[in-house]
Amino acid sequence: MLVGLLIGCLIWAGATVGDLTETQYPDETDVTPEPAAYVGDEVTLGGYVVDTDPVVIATRASGYGRFTLVDANAQLRTDDAPLERGDRVTAFGTLEDDSTLVVERTITRESTETRYMILASALGGLWVVGRFVRHWRIDRTALAFVPRERSRNGRSDQGNGPRETGTQPAARANDSRADQPQTDGPRTDAYSDQGDRTAATGGEPCA
Fold it and tell me: According to the UniProt record, where is the region Disordered (predicted)?
């Protein structure tokens, strides 16, 4: 649940239009269900352009909540080009009737920009969640997040297989000694031959 809330907040923050939406005026969430209650009031409506002559926006993705924007193209603040279908628009003005907004200023955003912001926010959220899961875990006894324990090589101690026991270094040392050349045999044979020659010459060592 916590992870889902984090991702949702990141997506919402990336897709939110600034400036006009930061005002205290009623927005599309308030106006769409009961527009007649806001007739004559200054409101901020955000939605997607569904028609361009005149400019009509739908405040819901399903196409519900349609409002005609009077003078929308003339009041553009961030783009000189006329509005096109699919553009994301946030318009501020006076609600003339339950389906008409007389626009004072308009901010537009292309649909590709919105998709890019959502994608970038989602990838950023997944990266943050991955880092969090990698370095933190839930301590069920304390009901809290605690850092994961790390071994000397920087990896988690869990899932790395059985640790090395004290008998393995000794076994490796034995293998190392076994690989060394055996020199005791030839030396013993040489001493034996020298002893035989000494006995044959009456106790005098042979040069």
Answer: 148-207
| Confidence at residue 150, expressed as pLDDT on a 0 to 100 scale | 72
56 lies in the same domain as 129: no
Cross-strand pairs, 125: none
User: Does one domain contain both 81 and 125?
Assistant: no
Same domain, 64 and 119: no
195: phi then psi, degrees, rounded to nearest 5? -65, -40
In whole angstroms, what is the distance from residue 77 CA to residue 169 CA? Answer: 75
Token pair for residue 153?
């090589």
pTM: 0.47
Q: How many CB atoms lie within 10 A of CB 202?
A: 6
Number of domains making up the chain: 2
> Considering Cα of 102, then 93, then 15, then 64, what sign does the dihedral take?
negative
Which domain covers residue 80, as residue numbers? 23-109
**Cβ neighbours of residue 96 under 8 Å, at least 6 residues apart?**
39, 70, 102
Of 47, 85, 91, residue with least CA distance to 65: 47
